[in-house]
Design brief:
The chain is an alpha+beta fold. The protein is built from three helices and five strands.
Length: 119
């Protein structure tokens, strides 16, 4: 188990969750994005409750190991959440759509390319 200090608050969660979160924050920061995610957190009454964290390039996490459950019990109580993709996503475009919508590279719709005068 790990203790994550996030925005001045201590949150206890599983090692897998903590490792995924630290890796994910690095990707969020690199994309200059912000995203809200839910992670399972151990409450003082020993229940596990989802907490929503807002992650951005400004997010600072401090992580430390703590004693508690380990192994299969930890994985069961603190499942690693599905983290949303960060940044743009590429998808294929049908060739008919390309021909219909993409500008021809040789076009000069604003007349910015100077054509030399013939001699």
């Amino acid at each position: 188990m790990k203790r994550i200090t996030y925005n001045g608050q201590s949150l206890i969660t599983g090692t897998g969750v903590s490792d995924a979160l630290v890796n994910y924050v690095a990707h969020v920061a690199a994309m200059a994005a912000a995203v809200a995610i839910d992670i399972p957190v151990l409450e003082p009454n020993n229940t596990v409750v989802p907490h929503t964290l807002l992650l951005s390039a400004a997010t600072q996490l401090e992580v430390a190991g703590v004693d508690g459950v380990t192994g299969a019990e930890e994985s069961e109580r603190f499942p690693v959440p599905a983290l949303p993709p960060v940044g743009g996503q590429a998808s294929p475009i049908d060739s008919a759509d390309i021909a219909a919508n993409a500008p021809v590279i040789d076009e000069d719709p604003m007349g910015l390319i100077a054509v030399p005068e013939p001699y």
